[in-house]
């Protein structure tokens, strides 16, 4: 991939399970096919919205291999490799590269509320992964609880060759993106936002070139990005405003369970099961989500029908 190809919508693939909690591998292949049919510019696997924190190490390897092999080059793929332990992150990066991934995504090192990497330890972990020789997306997410100030991000962009992509989804993402783009210059090759695109319009105004959304309404989110990058902000704003009720419900009420609910409705896979301790969506919350989605007629809700 070139820097210019890091644009558009790069949804996180949900991980389907069977009702007994085992991996639904045929369903995972169908998820990949559905996302390709949504027109996604790339795919991210094993991220937080893939329930990566509920997967065993062997399952991670199985899913990485399956997704990359099934994609067969149809779309570039980013593999999430975050872990507190630097040796584990490095090994995950090596596996992703060996299997043909195009990039990896990492949060800074953290484990719970009190074990957090310092700025220097964070830099060192990313530098070690950079030695593997695969492009890196830095995920600046509230889940880690680790502060990634703009000067640190710029330093990593300038001093670690493989740090090329930035997913900024902290509070006040637009202001941080604007400063990151201004101070990082050409070193910041691919500024993205996240959080399902809930602040996407402000983030695009601030210089984001793409978004890592969920796989719920990928084709519509992608169109907002394309309209904005093409200079038609009015169309981008109209598209964003049309999507916002559904994306807000996803972000504030459902989390990663939203894309799974949409894909079950669309018969991409059969079960919306989430592993304990994650509770299922309440019937009321699910019904409200689908009510928001039906006017959008997303591919995720009709792909397998």
UniProtKB/TrEMBL annotation:
<protein>
    <submittedName>
        <fullName>Dihydrodipicolinate synthase family protein</fullName>
    </submittedName>
</protein>
<comment type="similarity">
    <text>Belongs to the DapA family.</text>
</comment>
<dbReference type="InterPro" id="IPR013785">
    <property type="entry name" value="Aldolase_TIM"/>
</dbReference>
<dbReference type="Pfam" id="PF00701">
    <property type="entry name" value="DHDPS"/>
</dbReference>
<dbReference type="InterPro" id="IPR002220">
    <property type="entry name" value="DapA-like"/>
</dbReference>
<keyword id="KW-0456">Lyase</keyword>
């Amino acid at each position: 991939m070139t820097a210019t190809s890091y644009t558009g919508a790069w949804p996180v693939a949900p991980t389907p399970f069977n009702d007994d909690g085992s991996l639904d591998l045929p369903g995972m292949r169908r998820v990949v096919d559905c996302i390709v049919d949504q027109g996604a510019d790339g795919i991210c696997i094993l991220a937080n919205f893939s329930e990566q924190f509920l997967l065993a190490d062997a399952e991670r390897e199985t899913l990485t291999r399956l997704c990359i092999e099934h994609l067969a080059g149809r779309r570039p793929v980013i593999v999430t490799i975050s872990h507190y332990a630097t040796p584990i992150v490095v090994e995950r990066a090596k596996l992703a590269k060996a299997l043909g991934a195009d990039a990896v995504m990492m949060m800074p090192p953290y484990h719970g509320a009190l074990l957090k990497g310092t700025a220097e330890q964070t830099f060192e972990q990313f530098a070690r992964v950079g030695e593997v020789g695969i492009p890196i997306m830095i995920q600046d997410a509230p889940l880690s609880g680790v502060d990634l100030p703009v000067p640190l991000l710029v330093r990593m962009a300038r001093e670690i060759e493989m740090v090329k992509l930035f997913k900024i989804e902290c509070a006040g993402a637009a202001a941080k993106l604007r400063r990151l783009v201004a101070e990082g210059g050409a070193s910041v090759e691919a500024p993205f936002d996240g959080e399902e695109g809930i602040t996407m319009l402000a983030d695009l105004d601030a210089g984001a070139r793409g978004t890592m959304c969920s796989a719920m309404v990928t084709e519509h989110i992608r169109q907002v990005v394309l309209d904005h990058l093409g200079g038609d902000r009015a169309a981008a704003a109209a598209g964003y405003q049309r999507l916002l009720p559904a994306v807000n419900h996803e972000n504030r009420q459902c989390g990663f369970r939203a894309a799974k609910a949409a894909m079950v409705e669309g018969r991409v896979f059969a079960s919306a099961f989430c592993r304990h301790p994650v509770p299922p969506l309440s019937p009321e919350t699910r019904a409200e989500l689908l009510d928001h989605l039906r006017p959008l007629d997303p591919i995720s809700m009709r792909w397998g029908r």
